[in-house]
Amino acid sequence: MSVPSYSVSDFGTTKYGEKARKFTLNGAGGVVLEVSDYGGKVVRLFTADRDGAMKDVVVGFDSPAGWDDGDPYWGCIIGRFANRIAYGKFELNGKEYSVPTNNTPGGIPCALHGGTRGWDAYVWDAEPFVDGDNVGVVFKRTSPDGENGFPGKVEVKVVYTLTKDNVWRVDYEAVPDQDTPINMTQHVYFNFKGESGGSIEDHVMTIAASNVAPVNEGQIPTGEIRAVDGSPFDFRGGMRIGERINEPDAQLEIGKGYDHCWVLDRKSDGLEFAGGVYCPLNGRNVDVYTTETCMQVYTANWARYEQIAKGGEHLSFRCAVALETQHAPDSPNKPEFPTTVVKAGETYRSTTEFRFGVK
Ligand code: BGC
Fold first, then answer.
1. Per the residue annotation, which of 195, 324, 327, 353 is the catalytic one?
2. How far apart are CA 215 and CA 329, in angstroms?
3. CA–CA distance, 308 with 312 (Å, rounded to integer)
4. Residue nearest atom 3 of ligand 1, based on CA coordinates
5. pLDDT one-digit tens code per residue, 4-40
6. What residue's CA is closest to ligand 1, atom 8?
7. Per-residue pLDDT averaged across 276-281, rounded?
8. Which amino acid residue places its CA nearest to atom 6 of ligand 1?
């Protein structure tokens, strides 16, 4: 074990003209995490394989320009509302709200990940820290009333902590001054062969969920909660991502692969195992623990070849996998789903841990 430390450097200017910084967090257990105050984006994350060799296992870019397209939100903090809101519209306390749409799967518009300029696209106040064996960054931002059409001002805080046990913990806290939907996540994408390692179809994934939320052509949950038994969505016992991903299944065809919200089998309100991914070739593994009810799993089915990541490699179809802990998409329009509305003055809280190791 070593002494945790951090360093700070310039990260360039965003397309919105904001100056960004980068924080390199050297964890006491060996994991190194590079993150920016530009939407909390993960730039690099080094983990050890079963021989102790370190490799960068996330998709990221060397400067804010890499994120100019926004989508697919490589390694960003997502808010005010993760995933889709159908037509960008919802009703709350008898009033209709409209979030500018920025995504049109199947030709059907929706507000994705908070709409046109989500919380990922701002530079946040950021304070790095070392606290005993931990190193991390506290990110804060005030989302003004009416931002992207959402009601109420929200004070948001996200803390990244890297522990001596190679756990990257993400703690979210948000306090609105009016009732408003809040649903946050971290959109990190892993490829345990390295950023340029090609497809993640050889990675083995586990998801602790007996049910999944099917979607319509617009990738909006239909409201049905469907048992995964016998289907390509049953990852309870662990399965290679590629094992059944290309089967002729109506749900897999909509998203060109996995892009669904699994409803986690929870027993309590505390941190519980949600799932994990490992690479049999080198043993690198992450186990995800969360307080959230669901996990959206996305296998980068729309990754575009013209996007070039840090190592100069072109990104490609299914080049990474995102395990996004959150509440269900379109919850503001789905009274049958657990509510995502946070009442004025109440505190939204959510915690997710990415526990890195080898298998
Ligand atoms: C969504 C995908 C989307 C991706 C990148 C995921 O959370 O489920 O449909 O393409 O984010 O924006």
1. 324
2. 10
3. 6
4. 72
5. 999 999 999 999 999 999 999 999 999 999 999 999 9
6. 259
7. 98
8. 298
Choose the catalytic residue: 187, 203, 260, 327. Answer: 187
pLDDT value for 229: 98
Q: Is the CB of 326 under 6 A from ligand 1?
A: no
Q: Would you call 119 helix, strand, or coil by DSSP?
A: helix
Ligand 1 pocket, residue 72 CB under 6 Å: yes
Q: How far is the CA of 322 from the centre of ligand 1 (A)?
A: 9
Q: What is the CA(271)–ligand 1 centre distance, in A?
A: 24
Q: Is the pTM of this model over 0.90?
A: yes
Could you tell me if the CB of 83 is within 6 A of ligand 1? Answer: yes
Catalytic site residue 187?
A: yes
Own/partner long-range contacts of 96-99 (Cβ < 8 Å, ≥24 apart): 97/149, 97/150, 97/151, 98/149, 99/148, 99/149, 99/150
Query: For strand 134-143 and strand 125-131, is the pairing parallel, antiparallel, or unpaired?
Result: antiparallel
Distance CA 131, CA 357 (A): 22
Model pLDDT for residues 291-342, shown as the tens digit of each residue: 999 999 999 999 887 788 888 888 899 999 999 999 999 999 999 999 999 9
Residue 310: CB partners within 8 Å, gap ≥ 6?
A: 43, 44, 56, 60, 61, 62, 66, 195
pLDDT at 202: 98
User: Which pair of structure tokens corresponds to residue 78?
Assistant: 């997502």
Return d(Cα 199, Cα 351) in angstroms, integer: 29
For the CA of 78, the closest atom of ligand 1 is 7
- R_g (Cα) of the chain, nearest Å: 19
With residue 255 as reference, give the H or E element that holds it. helix 250-255
